[in-house]
């Protein structure tokens, strides 16, 4: 069954949250919380993304989280974090996913005092390229590629996660989504877009991995100022963190404001990125087969102790949002 057909079939298994023993808290944000758990039936570790139904309904993102579950379960790529099953009760929805031993790239990036080597960056980016190639082949846009959404697993390889902004787009869309510092100019201008969105964010990701900073924007700036910088700011490459000429060239081509000239969007698509000289020493087939050793020296994620009842209700009640989440 093809990816598009698996998404439409919506056959993600459903489980009960009582089948899981919560070990501790990993992290959270505006979407909810992520916990480490043991799937007792399967005797395996997993992570569970917990989202409050009331908050999702108030934020008008119920369709997005249902779409997230459908897409992330349907994907069968070694470079995309798999949803294994879903659960829900009267209070929350739960996405059960593969356990990333080393957490996300942002955490590791913040803990690492020195910069990543160019070899390590290239190894990571090559896997992201393979993930995007898989998605774009089925007209799926991720639309939120960033350090926080790239997980590092036990084998040292990465997987793309968090498909809350993902969407299947056979034609074009003009929906304003994503993270401010990664937004491409066409989204800010509300011009219909396709895969160019993810290609631009790939360029931002490479820049961040090299420089620990965004190419155009600042965290302290207002959204309006950041939007102006994305549309007209000058792209510079600080000398304090040298990049090879090929790395600079690829980053410039990915951060091309004119979509039709952006590498990966114009003729050749993702394959044009894979053929760029920066990847000359990368064998994508060997990476696809996971035959290239990873040299990431990351620390294991340590879940913080927590009382599960803080997030997960112990008492059954009538579900006021049953109809909204019937497809979950």
Automatic annotation (TrEMBL):
<dbReference type="Pfam" id="PF00069">
    <property type="entry name" value="Pkinase"/>
</dbReference>
<keyword id="KW-0547">Nucleotide-binding</keyword>
<protein>
    <submittedName>
        <fullName>cAMP-dependent protein kinase catalytic subunit gamma-like</fullName>
    </submittedName>
</protein>
<dbReference type="InterPro" id="IPR011009">
    <property type="entry name" value="Kinase-like_dom_sf"/>
</dbReference>
<keyword id="KW-0808">Transferase</keyword>
<keyword id="KW-0067">ATP-binding</keyword>
<keyword id="KW-0418">Kinase</keyword>
<comment type="similarity">
    <text>Belongs to the protein kinase superfamily.</text>
</comment>
<feature type="binding site">
    <location>
        <position position="49"/>
    </location>
    <ligand>
        <name>ATP</name>
    </ligand>
</feature>
<dbReference type="GO" id="GO:0004690">
    <property type="term" value="F:cyclic nucleotide-dependent protein kinase activity"/>
</dbReference>
<dbReference type="InterPro" id="IPR000719">
    <property type="entry name" value="Prot_kinase_dom"/>
</dbReference>
<feature type="domain" description="Protein kinase">
    <location>
        <begin position="20"/>
        <end position="279"/>
    </location>
</feature>
<dbReference type="InterPro" id="IPR017441">
    <property type="entry name" value="Protein_kinase_ATP_BS"/>
</dbReference>
<keyword id="KW-0723">Serine/threonine-protein kinase</keyword>
<dbReference type="GO" id="GO:0005524">
    <property type="term" value="F:ATP binding"/>
</dbReference>
<dbReference type="InterPro" id="IPR008271">
    <property type="entry name" value="Ser/Thr_kinase_AS"/>
</dbReference>
